[in-house]
Amino acid sequence: MAQEMKVVPQADKVKTGVEDAKLLAEGLAKAVADTYRLVFKTHAYHWNVEGPMFFSIHHLTEEQYEEMFAAADLLAERMRALGQLAPMSLTEIMKLSLIEDLNKTPSAQEMVEDLARDHATVARRFHDLIELAEGHRDPVTADLATARSAFHEQAAWMLRATAAK
Question: At a CB cut-off of 8 Å and minimum separation 6, what does 112 contact?
């Protein structure tokens, strides 16, 4: 049994007709990083939000971080299906992600506005992944990225509607 536990994961060639699986996996790694980082930020705001809109924001952010946590798994598993390794460190996640932290503790209004901006950023990045996947004969990744983009566009809209002054 000890020998079986010494297997080290590594990239592999997969012959499904997808062109340049490594390039696609790099795009997926960015998507995993953005998703995972936004999960944490959303969860942190969920924990810390206060004020008259507490329940609404607390409930909305819970729905969003739970959905994104499951999505990060789907994205990483797509990388593995393409024969590539998924990110394995928080350092890598931080390096690959476009999501940034605010430099201060935000108000409830600022939390919602910040998350809306982040979801729009992630949606745009998924649009880029869709184009990349379509250009490399990978309809599975394109479909996954389309679904993820739709989620982030809807999340941004819901947050913008909540933040409306």
Answer: 57, 159, 162, 163
Q: What is the pTM of this model?
A: 0.93
HSE on the CB side for 117, CA within 13 Å?
A: 12
Whole-number Cα distances in Å, 157 to 14, 97, 106, 117, 150: 38, 21, 20, 10, 11
Contact 112, 103 (CB under 8 A): no
Predicted confidence (pLDDT) per residue in 91-134, tens digit: 999 999 999 999 999 999 999 999 999 999 999 999 999 999 99
End-to-end CA distance of the chain: 62
* Angle 35-61-97 from CA coordinates, rounded to 5°: 20
Q: Tell me 17's DSSP state.
A: S
Cα–Cα dist 95/114, whole Å: 20
Token reading at 140? 């599975």
List Cβ neighbours of 47 (8 Å cut-off, separation of 6 or more). none
E-only strand ranges, the chain: none
pLDDT bucket at 74, cuts 50 / 70 / 90: very high
Q: Of the candidates 17, 15, 45, which has an alpha carbon nearest to the alpha carbon of residue 119? A: 45
R_g of the chain computed on alpha carbons: 17
